[in-house]
Q: What sequence folds into this?
């Protein structure tokens, strides 16, 4: 058997689970994703970034998407390879219009307590997209180059 | 975070109160709520005009915990209390920078430096 230093199709670990809208229910999934990243050699900085994105997107799905209704569910699909982490979180809500959300970076909002979850996701992840309805977020993280 | 333990431990350094966060991860909603209540209670009964919050034990903070800090900051302003933060690791500092909260809070590396900055 021969091995190459860089396989064109690195192995991908995948998890796909659905949870009721209760805080803490997805914590074991988050732990599993972070453990996979660590095992594959991702940096502490990138593991933190994905941790933040998972926490914030799950929190948004529960709080803003499903309005904390435990009868409603959210689904998390996540794949992890050496080169890419991809996360999709979908809730049962009606979605939201991002242009109507006050920008917490504006001077008049800078000391307003809420509205920073989405900002943190965008800041920490490489790519972030929403579906048209606004109830599904897809996020990707590539390894941060060593400085 | 467990529900029974204290979320912050307080001690005096000169004329400032230093509140050290005891949790390593500020990410679950119930724990953050309890942490916030302890901080709000501390601000309400504070006898001095200087408060430092030390994050030396904390390795993760979500936006909900940032929300608590913004409220603490607002309450401190209302009571004329000067507030500084310290012990924030590089990853969490990145979150402060992304949200521009590094411009809202006085943030210092070490506890003594934070006390002296007030």
A:
């Amino acid at each position: 058997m021969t091995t190459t230093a860089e396989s064109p199709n690195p192995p991908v670990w995948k998890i796909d689970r659905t949870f009721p809208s209760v805080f803490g229910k997805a914590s074991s999934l988050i732990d599993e994703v972070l453990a996979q990243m660590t095992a594959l050699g991702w940096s502490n900085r990138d593991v933190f970034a994905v941790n933040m994105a998972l926490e914030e997107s799950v929190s948004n799905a529960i709080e803003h998407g499903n309005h904390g209704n435990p009868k409603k569910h959210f689904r998390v699909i996540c794949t992890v390879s050496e080169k890419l982490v991809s996360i999709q979180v979908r809730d049962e809500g009606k979605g939201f219009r991002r242009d109507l959300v006050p920008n917490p970076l504006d001077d008049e909002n800078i000391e307003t307590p809420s509205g920073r979850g989405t900002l943190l996701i965008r800041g920490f992840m490489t790519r972030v997209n929403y579906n048209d309805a606004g109830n599904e977020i897809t996020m990707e993280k590539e390894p941060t180059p060593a400085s | 975070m467990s529900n029974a333990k204290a979320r912050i431990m307080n001690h005096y350094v000169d004329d400032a109160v230093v509140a050290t966060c005891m949790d390593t991860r500020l990410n679950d909603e119930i724990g953050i709520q309890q942490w916030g209540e302890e901080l709000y209670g501390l601000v309400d009964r504070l006898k001095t005009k200087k408060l430092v919050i030390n994050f030396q034990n904390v390795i993760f903070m979500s936006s909900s915990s940032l929300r608590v800090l913004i409220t603490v900051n607002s309450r401190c302003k209302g009571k004329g209390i000067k507030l500084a933060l310290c012990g924030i690791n590089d990853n969490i500092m990145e979150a402060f920078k992304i949200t521009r909260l590094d411009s809202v809070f006085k943030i210092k590396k070490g506890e003594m430096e934070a006390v002296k900055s007030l």
User: Anything to note?
Assistant: Chain B has a mean pLDDT of 94.
